[in-house]
TrEMBL record:
InterPro entries attached to this UniProt entry: LD-transpeptidase_YkuD-like, LD_TPept_cat_dom, LD_TPept_scaffold_dom, Peptidoglycan-bd-like, PGBD-like_sf, PGBDSf, Transpep_catalytic_dom
Protein name: L,D-transpeptidase family protein
This protein's record includes keyword Transferase: yes
Molecular function via GO: carboxypeptidase activity; transferase activity
Transmembrane segments: none
Domain L,D-TPase catalytic: 303-478
Superkingdom as given in the UniProt entry: Bacteria
Family annotation (Pfam families): PG_binding_1, Scaffold, YkuD
């Protein structure tokens, strides 16, 4: 009895010192370290077991517990197991977290010996650490996958997070807070649930030799109607005819809208390509987009611009409300628009355009070789290394890449009338265009990497936020002068150039063409 009393007393004293130890760390202005207080029934963990995992974060965690088990609470164990088992709802793979082995341990937990209890504890911790890491940063590192993705890592101290979770009165709620909170991520999770309610599909690819227009009769229409019924665009029928009737026209238009296609009711190769996607391919597409959203910033900013490259759309959001949207033109597949986050800093009216190296090599030099008048017609001045203007007839191919090529401001300038700058290592920016008719195209991956914005003057007026000095009337006068003018953006507006090809809206699955062909490759890397 005396021994039992001493053990209980020791536990009480240890528990009482818990907050005191935390206070001492804060008073010394040191970085807080994980400090786990195992329950009194904890078991000693041997060093050999920890070494077998070859995981520094895991070893460091148990160092803070004085190498004793910490998952004595059945409630906490079951909360974590439930999270790992349903990790597929987050686009993750439950097999990555040893869920079968953990479930077997839990079933036998009441009869496990000390050695197996230690193994269970360590395996649960290792799996939970991995899950936290995957929730907050994704399974893969985009900085290693892509040269033109420039996103900061969502830093998290795994063991400190584990400590806070264990200290929490509501472990399940705290885990939920680790998940991305952006509306698009939530809509992706909704999309995954929606598509999983659909039955298995076993369709064969549809092939057409020519476009199908309303009232046409075509044998492929029967298979097209079956697809539309499957995707719930068309009501089920007892019999299907090969006639492209009015009801099917309406269904095709709905399908085209959901897939970012022109809702013209013409069944062409683009519409057929979208119809030929299987349920499984669409699930893969949703999963890779859930992964991407774990890479993106957790906090977008109080006011921010977000551009979804495959959707060709700019959205300005303030306090979680969408204030305005603009169509955009993005980089084509050979000159992809980069993925990045930054802040808007400056507006340039009547910008000059210095031709970048890639466009110089691939576009400008070949055009000059065809005709020296290209430079005059394009209003481009050429400067040598001393800053001297080189006339079109002095221009030499051997020196072509040493020259600097600058297009003067004006109506024909490639950047249009305005440029909006945000710091980045790719030298890309938002700008107007002298080809505004391009905004009416469905496929708008047409630029050399920068982003062209429809109605940029209205966006600029909003960003400058100065009705007295920078209203549209005064901006127009500046533009008419054709003199370059730089204006600082005073308000803080974050800027995000991102890439996602799936989501949901109003219980409808939404998809966009994977214009840079990233989805399938990313899924293979995630699951192989």
């Amino acid at each position: 009895m005396n021994k039992l009393f001493l053990i209980l007393l020791l536990c009480i004293v240890t528990s009482c010192k818990r907050e005191e130890l935390k206070s001492e760390v804060v008073l010394k202005n040191e970085a807080p370290k994980p400090r786990i207080q195992p329950e009194c029934k904890s078991i000693k963990i041997g060093s050999t077991l920890l070494i077998s995992f070859n995981n520094k974060a895991l070893t460091d965690f148990y160092k803070s517990t004085k190498y004793r088990t910490i998952w004595q609470s059945e409630e906490n164990r079951k909360i974590i197991l439930a999270e790992l088992l349903k990790s597929d709802e987050e686009g993750l793979n439950p097999e990555d977290y040893k869920v079968k082995a953990l479930s077997n341990f839990e079933k036998k937990s009441a009869t496990l010996n000390d050695s197996d209890l230690a193994k269970y504890d360590v395996l649960l911790t290792a799996s939970f650490q991995k899950y936290i890491s995957h929730l907050t940063n994704g399974t893969l590192n985009p900085r290693k996958l892509y040269k033109n993705w420039d996103l900061r890592e969502n830093y998290i101290d795994i063991n400190e997070t584990m400590t806070h979770l264990l200290d929490s009165d509501s472990l399940a709620d705290k885990i939920e807070q680790l998940k991305p909170n952006h509306i698009v991520y939530k809509r992706l999770k909704k999309a995954l649930k929606l598509i999983n309610t659909l039955p298995k599909d076993n369709f064969k690819p549809i092939k057409i030799t020519e476009k199908i227009t309303p009232n046409d009769t075509n044998p492929s229409i029967v298979d097209i109607k079956k697809r539309l019924i499957y995707w719930k665009e068309l009501q089920p029928k007892d019999s299907l005819t090969p006639v492209y009737d009015e009801e099917t026209v309406i269904a095709i238009k709905k399908f085209q809208v959901r897939h970012g296609l022109g809702p013209n009711a013409i069944i062409d190769e683009g519409t057929i390509a979208s119809l030929n996607f299987s349920k499984q391919q669409r699930i893969h597409q949703i999963i890779v987009n859930l992964e991407r959203w774990k890479w993106y910033p957790k906090e977008m900013g109080k006011e921010y611009i977000i551009i979804n490259i495959p959707d060709y759309r700019l959205t300005l959001i303030k306090d979680q409300d969408t204030l305005r949207t603009h169509r955009v033109i993005v980089g084509r597949a050979k000159r992809k628009t980069p993925i990045l986050s930054s802040k808007l800093t400056q507006v340039v009216f009547n910008p000059t355009w210095t031709v970048p190296p890639t466009i110089l090599r691939e576009d400008v030099i070949p055009a000059i070789l065809k005709s020296r008048s290209y430079l005059t017609n394009s209003n481009i001045k050429v400067y040598d290394s001393n800053g001297r203007i080189v006339s079109p007839y002095e221009w030499q191919l051997s020196q072509a890449e040493t020259y600097r090529y600058v297009q003067s401001p004006g109506t024909f300038n490639s950047l249009g009338m305005v440029k909006i700058i945000f710091p980045n290592r790719f030298s890309v920016y938002l700008h107007d265009t002298n080809h505004r008719d391009y905004f009416d195209k469905i496929d708008r991956s047409l630029s050399s990497g920068c982003v062209r914005v429809d109605n940029p003057l209205e966006l600029t007026e909003y960003l400058l936020d100065d009705a007295a000095n920078w209203n549209l009337e005064k901006i127009t006068k500046i533009l008419q002068s054709e003199k370059t003018k730089f204006i600082k953006i005073k308000k803080e507006v974050s800027f995000h150039l991102l890439y996602w090809t799936a989501w949901s809206e109003n219980n409808k699955l939404i998809f966009r063409d994977d214009i840079y062909a990233l989805d399938a490759n990313l899924y293979n890397k995630l699951r192989n």
